[in-house]
Amino acid sequence: MIKAAIIEDEQNCSEYLSLLLSKNFEDIEIIGIADSIETGLVLLERETPDLVFLDIMLSNNNAFELLRNFNEIKFEIIFTTAHDEFALKALKVSALDYLLKPIDPKELAVAVEKYKKKHNNPFDFSRQLSVLFDRYVNQNDRPTKIALPTMQGYEIINTEDLIYCEADGGYTKFHLKENQVKLVSKNIKIYEDLLSVSNFFRIHQSFLININHIVKYIKGDASQVIMSNGVSLNVSKLKKDEIKNIIKNFAS
User: Fold this and answer.
1) Residues 6+ apart with CB under 8 A from 228
2) What is the CATH T-level fold of the domain 2-137, as seen in this structure?
3) Is the whole model's pTM more than 0.70, yes or no?
C-alpha cells in the first residue's frame, strides 16, 4: 500500500484530488491532508508518507519553505501548480513531476504510474530539487542547471558546460565540455523553450547552441559557427541575420 499525503491550501482542490485518488487507486492510502506550511510540516513529521502531492505555492509562501525543514527527504513528491508560466518552466528544467490544476484524472494516472516505476528504482532527487530551487525560489530567469533524464534517474548538468544540442530524430544529443555526449529521449524543441533565456539560440533545425561557446562565425552562402570544441555547425539561411546580430551585441 502506498501512503500518500496532500498539502494544498485550496480546500476544493485537495478534496477533488483526494476523491480522485480514493476512487481510482486501490493501492493508495491517504494518510493526511494539510493546508499550510505549518500543518504540512506537522503531518510529514508525524506520518511517514511514501508520496506527497505538494502545491508549489501555499498561501503567500512556496513549497520550499516547507521542504527546507528536512535534512533528508525520504518521500517522493508530485508538485501541483496552477498555470504559472514561471513555475512550469522551473519544473520542466528540473525534470520533476507535476500536475496542472485543475487536475486531469488521466494525467494523475500517468504521474502515479511514473511514481510506481521510480519507487521500484530508488533515486536521490535532491539535486533535481536544487535545480528547481535555483530557478523558482531564487527567481533565476536564466537557469544555471538542467536535469537530463537517464536510464538510472536524472543527471544534473551545468548549462555553462553545455556547448550545443543536436536533434537526432525525436531524441536530443547534448554535447558538453571534455567531449562528453549525453543522449536524451526528448525533442530538441523542449530544450529550446527552456534554454532560450540562457544565451542559447536555435541556428538550425538540428542545432541549439550556447552563444558563450562560439569562437568563430564564417560568413557566406553556407554560413557556419565554430564552437569551442572545434566542431563546425551550419547556420540556416533563415537564421543568418539573427545570429550575426546576436554575436555583434554579445561581443559589444
Assistant:
1) 163, 177, 213, 214, 215
2) Rossmann fold (3.40.50)
3) no
